[in-house]
Amino acid sequence: MDTKYIFVTGGVVSSLGKGIISASLAKLLQARGYNVTIQKFDPYINIDPGTLNPYEHGECYVTVDGHEADLDLGHYERFTNIRTTRANNITTGRIYQNVINKERRGDYLGKTVQIIPHITDEIKRNVKLLGTKNEFDFVITEIGGTVGDIESLPFLESVRQLKWELGKNCLCIHLTYVPFIAAAKEVKTKPTQHSVKQLQEVGIQPDILVLRTEHELNNDIRRKVALFCNVAPEAVIQSIDVPSIYEVPLKMQQQKLDEIVLTKTGMTLGATPELKPWKEFLARVKNAKESVRIGLVGKYVELQDAYKSIDEALFQAATYNDRKLDLQLIHSEKLNESNVEEMLSSMDGLLIAPGFGQRGIEGKFTAIKYAREHDVPTFGICLGMQCMVIEFARNVLGYADANSTEMEVSTKHNVIDLMESQKSVSNMGGTMRLGEYDCVLNPDSKTAKAYQSTHIKERHRHRFEFNSDYRAEFEAAGMKCVGENPETHLVEVIEIPSLSWFIGVQYHPEYNSTVLRPNPLFLDFIKAVIKNKK
Ligand code: GLN
Known about the structure:
By secondary structure, the chain is of the alpha/beta class. A 9-stranded mixed β-sheet has the order 13-12-14-15-23-22-21-18-19, with helices on both faces. Helix 4 crosses helix 5 (115-129). The chain is globular and about 75 Å long. It starts with a strand and ends with a helix. It binds glutamine. Residues 354-356, 382-383, 406, 461-464 line the site of glutamine.
């Protein structure tokens, strides 16, 4: 069976939810028994988003094989449970880097290297890479950016060529926006018509249109769009705003998005899947009455997507504990000894966020000290865990100058320090400890009980580590190192067993939490928060 290639493009404006639509379609096809993968092509020149500030592009997601990726890959995994890899996220930078490397090697045999065919060929090679292994029935490719962007052109040209080459094995879903003009009390389809024209200008006729809207679109609207855009009326689908992104697959199923894709690509429909566990999850979302109030202490709080995976993992964990998530973003730069009581006393639990650099770090120490002294359930992730260690060294071990050498190179008490292997690294991009690593847990720890296992694998993204020279001293004073890497013996998890729930992890469990397989540590954290509340 030939692999089918589905492209998802966007027009009119960005942030229409191409990632969610791609993930929803994948979910629906998967539920019908097909093997599906999703990849994202980003038109920026960075090799990967690893060096991007979250202000630029939201959170950086990490795949099991250690690739720093676009946050949409997080949606793909959360919806489908499929693990993505380096091959699932390609940028213009990587395409150009490959082509330039080939040129330097002499692979082009003296030819002039051009956007068409050399760049487009490299794009097409990457589009098909996942399909060549015969592992997947469907490869869904989301093209980042918006039709009309200069940066997107080589990608769209590649889609045009592939549509021609692959025929029935390829189709294009185009997402647009239908604004509602309040004064006229009308939804407007003109931007959609223009956007489709723009796509047609580069030689692509979309097969399916998904219209993002805040108001129901009636059949007249759909017929009108169909008529102007050369698309069948039933292939004009609305994507109306919903309270939870996890409702989108159901909305798409009601409008038969998956059936249209299957029919157009000549695949068997089979029975309509029930999506039972998915619906059960959504029912729990709806039925949850009480809420848990979690304070997320970080420095990117004005930015919705900076802690995307943490937000989703908390939401999933709250839902499985039949609670609503009341997430409060607490700006670590604004926290200090004089306002900490006021800012944190109404929190049921705290999550100390990951991050890089000095900014906002003192506020994290203040929050941790408060949580430790008031026994507030607290979950530290990566830099958050490192801050728990530093705070303990300062206020319990009495090393007032304790720090991470990331913040203070010459500190005498370098309780968090650079790994030996990182000391010679000078390039920033892709040079951290990245991807999935084994971790062995002390069987008596809360963490092992949460995972119901002493052997786990979680994903990492950091340069600095707990300094094992201090291990015995910390343990004697009550902070236990309960998880370590079996090969390097690096400390991966710390706990203060005398507190109700005070756990810091060097890894990022949030990358490993999906709707149908929520992360055990997040579940246990919320459970502890609820217990503590009573
Ligand atoms: N800045 C810290 C390090 O590099 C933590 C990184 C993180 O929180 N992801 O080790």
